[in-house]
Amino acid sequence: MESGLYIVATPIGNLGDISHRAVDVLQSVTLIAAEDTRHSQRLLQHFSIETPTMAYHDHSDQRALDRLGDCLAAGGSVALVSDAGTPLISDPGYRLVRHVQQLGFPVVPVPGPCAAIAALSASGLPTDRFLFEGFLPAKAVSRANRLAELAATPVSLIFYEAPHRLADSLDAMIEVFGGDREAVLAREITKTFETIRRASLAELAAFVRADPNQQKGEIVLIVAGRIRREGDLDAGAAALLERLAQELPAKRAAAVVADVTGLRKKALYDYLLAAKKPNA
Fold it and tell me: What pLDDT is attached to residue 10?
């Protein structure tokens, strides 16, 4: 097998979702670097894969990188697997990929399951453009601030969430996005108790609190992007307006941007008033 690092996607639940190529690679490489070797061992045993494993995770130090680099330098090959799904998608591996590339060895993707994409495909929300946000901050203030930064984003937003934070995150989303914003709860995808439910954020929050089982397992939340309305500013015009409002009175800033963009001065001034950013 060609010496290099193979990024191998593994099932997120149903073992039948592993590809023939993934099994072949895992059987053929010299070494498997796993996020949790005990967790991965169950998968390897199921497919009679006896390749040696070593741990590679967020807390791995330079010695782990050196060991993997030595394996490649000796003509070997390494497969990287996470606990489930596609490695590096909210999982460790970024440093390892760069390290292997800097050593001059190829990095080869072996595609397969990914919870974010699986959830999006069955969500019923727009899929032409989306933003994968991963896990929100655990602390309430930081979480609210990050959601506020995303509030005007016009594309589908994909989040991973821990079960014990699900209810709080839904409440925070209601506070920032509004309870009417459409969203999808995708839980335990491909597993026995798979749940995919599309509703308003307020309805999803009530659903989760009424059924404690919904606060268990692997969770993906997808929130619809903000629908643009007549009079909404695009990001560039809004940024220009807000910057000018730091230097000029609100009416003057609105007039300048109106001259540049052709937008209505009153609409621009109203935007500044709503944002509470006029320079009085």
Answer: 97
Q: From 150, 23, 10, select the one nearest 91 (Cα to Cα).
A: 10
**Beta carbons within 10 angstroms of residue 129's beta carbon:** 10
Structure confidence at residue 277 as a pLDDT band (50, 70, 90): very low
Whole-number Å distance between alpha carbons of 60 and 227: 43
Closest listed residue to residue 134, CA positions, set 88, 189, 97: 88
- What is the number of other CB atoms lying within 10 angstroms of the CB of residue 241? 25
> CA 197, 200, 205 angle in degrees (round to 5)?
75
DSSP, collapsed to helix, strand or coil, labels residue 39 as helix
pLDDT grade for 280, boundaries at 50, 70 and 90: very low
Q: Give residue-wise pLDDT tens across range 16-57.
A: 999 999 999 999 999 999 999 999 999 999 999 999 999 999
How far is residue 87 CA from its own chain's centroid? 12
- Contacts of 1 by beta carbon, 8 Å cutoff, 6+ apart: 25, 28, 29, 30, 77
**3-state DSSP assignment of residue 97:** helix
User: Is residue 227 over pLDDT 90?
Assistant: no
In angstroms, rounded to a whole number, what is the distance separating the alpha carbons of residues 96 and 102? 10
- Look at phi and psi of residue 276 and say left if phi exceeds 0, alpha if psi is from -120 to 50, else beta: left
Task: Return the H-helix or E-strand segment holding 257.
Answer: helix 250-261
Q: 215 with 164: CB under 8 angstroms?
A: yes
Q: pTM to 2 decimals?
A: 0.81
Return mean pLDDT, the chain. Answer: 92
